[in-house]
Design goal:
Elements: H1 3-13, E1 21-28, E2 35-47, E3 50-61, H2 74-101
Antiparallel strand pairs: 1-2, 2-3
Helix pairs in contact: 1-2
């Protein structure tokens, strides 16, 4: 796997601003220089004696890891797009889970001043 791709994957997985736990795994395709990369973000929310599990998993096949590829930056471009999708879908699921947990919550709320 090319170093530029590894750096991008590690940057996403280790992002200090992430909401959930992130994990990236990969599998090299047989007789090929390409990979299947699995992206996962996951969190367990425990609040007020209620819990919810939020998880998202997406897979991507590389096409630009061999030296024969005409567009060597193609995988970087596609992974950046997929990361945006994963983060948005995860945030949506996380927000929905919080809404469900707080649906009948009877606590006091305060106004921001």
């Amino acid at each position: 796997m090319k170093q530029e791709l590894i750096a991008l994957l590690l940057e996403w997985e280790r992002d200090i601003n992430k909401t959930g736990e992130r994990q990236i795994t990969y599998m090299k395709l047989p007789n090929n220089e390409e990979y299947i990369i699995t992206f996962k973000e996951d969190i367990k929310i425990h609040l007020n004696n209620k819990s919810k599990h939020v998880s998202i998993t997406k897979n991507l096949r590389t096409f630009a890891q061999s030296d024969k590829e005409l567009n060597p930056k193609g995988d970087i471009y596609r992974i950046k797009q997929l990361i945006q999708i994963i983060e948005q879908e995860f945030l949506n699921k996380y927000s929905e889970a919080l809404d469900e947990i707080f649906l009948n919550f009877e606590g006091e709320s305060s106004k921001l001043e």
